[in-house]
Amino acid sequence: MDKKVELDKLLDSIDTGAEAPVSEPERQFFYMAKCREWTKAEKARLGRELTFHVQTFGCQMNAKDSEKLTGILEEIGYVETDSENADFVIYNTCTVRENANNRVYGRIGYLGTLKKKNPGMKIAMCGCMMQEEHVVEKIRRSYRFVDIVFGTHNIFKLAELFYESLKRGKMVVEVLQGTDMIVEDLPSERKYPFKAGVNIMYGCNNFCSYCIVPYVRGRERSRKPEDIIHEIEELAANGVVEVMLLGQNVNSYGKTLAEPVSFAKLLRMVNEVEGIRRIRFMTSHPKDLSDELIQAMAECEKVCMHLHLPVQSGSSRILKAMNRRYTKEDYLALVDRIKAAMPSISLTTDIIVGFPGETEEDFLETVDVVKKVGYDSAYTFLYSKRTGTPAATMENQVPEDVAKERFDRLLQVVTEVSAQRAQEDTGRIEEVLVEERNEQEPGLVTGRLSNNLLVHFPGDTDLIGQIVRVRLDECRGFYYMGTQSIR
């Protein structure tokens, strides 16, 4: 039986007049059923469907959380729309950079004007930004029209919090400072029918000095391997051919389990799932990338030839100040071992420019790493002072104009190196997972190579979701133009 149909039958059978269960996920199913009764009555009163919109800010972990929020709202009885002019709007927020918070405040103000026109509108704020006490206080004080505020540890409680807000008729705030709970079997609505993200762990124990994530996402906690494999088997049965294993640091997966399982072992288990043809994962911390994992990647034929390996800086002195716990030499030696095992591997990275105390010599060390590794692409960021992190109070903050000038120089080097790498594959025939119709040019479809680069080529939309062979005719920087190969 289809999982959604099965859940619908379960919710219809729940006695909503009884006491709410204590155990999860039964408690959330109970509140979904309670909220479903309310939406049914509200739709009858209004004579129309109730709509919702989930706006996601930030990383793929947030995107995955938003799929769960979407699944819960659909079970309650809402219909998704791409407009914020909806009956229920959720902002799933990111707080990695301070200016991201300011953008969100502006958007909340806009929602306030929409709510004046539609007083029955519900507004919820969740995600990493809500884990900061001063943010919650500002929302309580300045945005009193918000109905629900919750954080990263209780995403699964949306239905319960919604019901509480209906009952109380005022703002409900529940932000947990930490949890060891992982709630399985809740509804989730995927963006793509043929590929899916799968959480394998939550939280982070690394405490890089510039990063707020461990403070807002909590300590590491891993899902049981049998739950992960069961989810992936269900995805495969529903037509998913590519999975992305998600975690703040997937390389440290399994350390919190009663019976520890390494990420390398989990990768081999996923590789055995029938129907799955591609496996990706994010994000890898260099200090935890073991030779066991390199061997597993090389031997598992479904693992994509792409590894995102954030370096952040090429200077060992700056890396120490960042609390990254590896040196430039450690990183380059690791890259050498990876390339020896997988010569065709595509390496991408994250780099921060202008970290406190960074000198011109430190910056040139970073440029040296970019040239030596030969990244296919790099996500480069200007250092953003993040209140609450050790780096925010460090001396020798780099002047903005100096950091910007270095950033521009680094971007030029990254572009040159990645273009050179991409040219090497021009003329080859590679497998491509077709993902969507090209929005800019009619008649083209867009797909992704194993190395994660995009390819645009002539094709019908019935190719979407299929893996096809494509000749890479022309490299245009970060993407290719190609033609489908019949051979």
Provide a compact summary of the structure:
By secondary structure, the protein is of the alpha/beta class. 38% of the residues lie in helices and 20% in strands.
Write up this protein.
- The protein is an alpha/beta fold.
- The chain is built from 14 helices and 19 strands.
- The strands form five sheets. It has a six-stranded parallel beta sheet, sandwiched between helices.
- A hairpin with a 4-residue loop joins strand 16 and strand 17.
- Helix 2 packs across helix 6.
- The model has no long low-confidence stretch (mean pLDDT 93).
SSE map:
Elements: H1 3-13, H2 26-46, E1 50-56, H3 60-76, E2 78-80, E3 88-93, H4 98-117, E4 122-127, H5 133-142, E5 148-150, H6 158-168, E6 172-174, E7 195-199, E8 201-202, H7 213-217, E9 221-222, H8 225-237, E10 242-246, H9 263-271, E11 278-282, H10 291-299, E12 306-308, H11 316-321, H12 328-341, E13 346-353, H13 360-373, E14 377-382, H14 400-423, E15 429-437, E16 444-449, E17 454-458, E18 467-475, E19 479-484
Parallel strand pairs: 1-2, 1-3, 3-4, 4-5, 5-6, 7-10, 10-11, 12-13, 13-14, 17-19
Antiparallel strand pairs: 8-9, 15-16, 15-18, 16-17, 18-19
Helix pairs in contact: 2-6, 9-10, 13-14
Keywords:
487 residues, alpha/beta, six-stranded parallel sheet, 19 strands, 38% helix
Number of helices: 14
Please give the largest β-sheet.
6 strands, parallel
Rg, please? 24 Å
Which parts are unreliable, with pLDDT below 50 for 5 consecutive residues or more?
none
- In round numbers, the mean pLDDT is 93
Oligomer: single chain
Number of strands: 19
Shape descriptor: globular
Whole-Å distance between the termini? 39 Å
Strand order of the largest sheet: 2-1-3-4-5-6
